[in-house]
Amino acid sequence: MHEQLFISELFYSIQGESTRAGLPCLFIRLAGCNLRCTYCDAAYTWQEPGTVMRISDICATIAKTPDVLVEITGGEPLAQAGVYPLMQALLNSDRRVLLETNGSLSLCGVPDAVTIIMDVKCPGSGMASANLLGNLALLRERRARQCTDEIKFVLSSRDDFHWAHAMVLRERLDHVAPVLFSPVRPGLDPATLAQLLLDHRINVRLQLQLHTLLWPGQSRGV
């Protein structure tokens, strides 16, 4: 059973988030999610069942576009046990692999060669209670092994900013991995967030969703 996955979509686009924004990327979007964030922009991943695909078929599809970054996303990809053999199969074929995860499930089984982009859910998401804070310790251990992970906060208000700022300082997250603050519009204007970052002199990166600027109003296949 672990040799197949429920897939929401497979597509080739521009990486819109993370420090690799702007790079061509193949996306494997898995169906299903254990959270219900207030600002979810991919609700179809858990509202629709997805298509069952064997890992071998996924890899065959990916192989048609060689030498390109691959991102596994969702939904929540770690909710499907088959994601682990998928990650290993992609690594075995010498692909650079990113994993975007909501931070509520343990990262302990993710290979070191996979770059984790982990969300920390702010109160405005309605899901802050789901944060698995033990994952921060795992990210610290991975950093000691020279892993190249990232931590992301999606902010929907000034209150979210101050909550995230306090967590970054308390946990010294900028010493764990690059930290990204991403504003939700219309909740938090990007220029307002930029000014907050300057005013507080916090060592994090402002992240705008590049794909939403390139293809406004298009939610799938980007």
Question: Summary?
Answer:
With 222 residues, this protein is an alpha/beta fold. The chain contains seven helices and nine strands. It has a single domain (4-214), classed as Aldolase class I (TIM Barrel), CATH 3.20.20.
* Annotated CATH architecture: Alpha-Beta Barrel
Would you tell me which CATH topology applies?
Answer: TIM Barrel
Number of strands: 9
The tally of domains stands at: 1
The helix count comes to 7
C-alpha termini separation: 29 Å
Strand order of the largest sheet: 3-1-2-4-5-6-7-8-9
Quaternary structure classification: single chain
What form results from the Cα inertia axes? Answer: globular
Question: Which structural class is indicated by helix and strand composition?
Answer: alpha/beta
How helical, in percent, are the residues? Answer: 25-40%
Question: CATH superfamily membership, which one?
Answer: Aldolase class I
Structural Rg: 17 Å
* CATH top level class name: Alpha Beta
